[in-house]
Amino acid sequence: MNNNNYLEDFITRSTYHSNAIEGSTLTYAETYAILFNDNSFKISGREPREIYEAINHKKAMNVLFEKLKSDDLELNEEFIKKINETINQDIRDTKGYRKVSVMIKGSDDIPPKPEQLNNLMMYFVYNYNHNETKDIFEKIAGFHIEFEHIHPFEDGNGRTGRLLINFELLKNNIPPIVIPKEERTKYFELLRSKDITALASWLKELSDKEKERIELFNSSNS
Asked: Keywords of this protein's UniProt record, alphabetized (predicted)?
C-alpha cells in the first residue's frame, strides 16, 4: 500500500463500488473528482448526500489506515463506532449503536433489538478476537456475516462492514478487496445464505485479483 498511484486507485474504486452497492448513482469519474479535487470535472445534479457519502468513505478509509499504523491492531468497539460515525458525518446525526429497530433491505433476516446490542457487540468482538480459525478468509467471512446480521447501526452497516473486512486483511498483510457493484446480487445472496465457506472462497478470489493489480502498479513504477 506504499504506492501512491495504487492507493489513489484503490481508494477511488473502494469508495465508488461500496457506495454504489448501497444505491449511490455517482459515476466512477465523479467519485474520483470528489475525492481528489479534480476541478476539471464538473459535477451537477447530484444529491448532497451522495457527495458526502463519497467524502466520508475516504475519511473512514483514512481512519482505517491510521489504525494500521498504530501499535493497537486488535479490533475493538471504539474503532468500529468511529468508522461508522465517520461514514455518517454530515448525513445522519447518530453516534453509537442504533436505538431503533431496523430491517435489512432485501432480506428476511431480522436484526436484534436495540436493547440487545451493547452485550451482543461486546461478545461479538471478544469472540472474533479469540477465534482460532486458521483460515483467515473463513474467520473474516464469519465475522462479516454476523456483523451484517447484527446490523448495529441505523445506517452505514454495509459500508462499515466492508471496511472492516479490509482492516482485517491488511492487518494480516493480505491484499484488500473491492466488491464490485456488478456483483451486488451475488454478495447479498452470500450474506443471506450465511455460507461462510462460499463467502470465504469469494473473498480470497477478490483478494488474489487485487494482488495482481498491486503488482501491475508496482511494475509500472519500477
From this structure: ATP-binding, Nucleotide-binding
> Is 161 annotated as a binding-site member?
yes
Q: Which CATH superfamily is domain 4-221 in?
A: Fido-like domain (1.10.3290.10)
Q: Does the annotation place 162 within a ligand binding site?
A: yes
Please indicate, yes or no, whether the overall pTM of this predicted structure exceeds 0.85. Answer: yes
- Span 21-35, pLDDT tens digits: 999 999 999 999 999
Q: Give one word for 105, left, alpha or beta, with left for phi > 0 and alpha for psi -120 to 50.
A: beta
Report the C-alpha dihedral over residues 150, 153, 154, 156, rounded to 10 degrees. -100
Percent of the chain clearing pLDDT 90 (strictly above) = 85
Among the options 17, 57, 149, 151, which is catalytic? 151
Could you count the other beta carbons within 10 Å of the beta carbon of residue 208? 12
